[in-house]
Amino acid sequence: MKELSKKLKLKRTWQLHVMMVPIVVLLVIFCYVPMIGIVVSFQDYLPTKGFFGSPWVGLDNYRFLFSLNDFFQIIRNTLIISGGKILLGLIISIFFAIMLYESNMRIMKNVVQTSVFLPYFLSWVVLGGIFIDIFSLEGVVNRIISFLGIEPVMFMGHPIWFVIVIIITDVWKVYGYNMIVFYAAIMGIDTALYESATIDGAGRIRQVFAITLPSIAPMIVVMGMLSLGNILNAGFDQIFNMYNPTVMSTADILDTYIYRMGVVSGQYSFATAVGFFKSIVAMILIVTSNWAAKRFAGYRIF
Hints:
Number of helices: 14
Number of domains: 1
Oligomer: single chain
CATH class: Mainly Alpha
CATH superfamily: MetI-like
Order of helices and strands: HHHHHHHHHHHHHH
CATH architecture: Orthogonal Bundle
Low-confidence stretches: none
């Protein structure tokens, strides 16, 4: 009976399976075939000799990797920057989603949704140059600070301030996208709950804490758990276009380190080892976050 049901289902949906074929082919070509390059991390790779001619060194690259003090500093930088982006991004997105829902001006809602969503589509190549000018010693921010009688701050040259700028500018760029997700979740709340709360004398702020936040709590958990899978991706495009040698102690992350070791220094085997380590950790975090999302929010990615 089950086999007959599967055959009937396949007969009705075979067109969808055919439509998936080009996507699967592209996925295999661009995602799975390049994974062959992982073998480079176990070699002393020489471009002139290729995969088959380069000598094997086993786990030497990984032993060297974990013996470096700089590597653990880079891990720390990555976690601080990425964790700050995730935490502040969730808070800002939830706050603005609630503010947008509570607004009674329909035209203002449409304008705000469009304006905060637009930066998500802008490239960091463009935004990086803009923010460097804004936060430079002669930039707009320091001119305002000087006008208030405060000493100018080297935002782009101070290790701590640079990290703060990185986190804030990234949140500004992407919070509009996350806000739409939370706003959609809020729109799905039964309006009868708000009507009952109003009859009972609850104000707008009380309704937010008693109805809105508890109702979207599963979505908050899901978004937070999914973000954990990308915690080692602190934003290569952004940092690469904005950092400089004076802030390397706090701004150098795994992706920029891999770029410098592989592309700039030509240490292909070592850079591949770092990238493979990052992929293994990311896979563990994704599986863990999927389990946590299922456990605490009843949601599964796969």
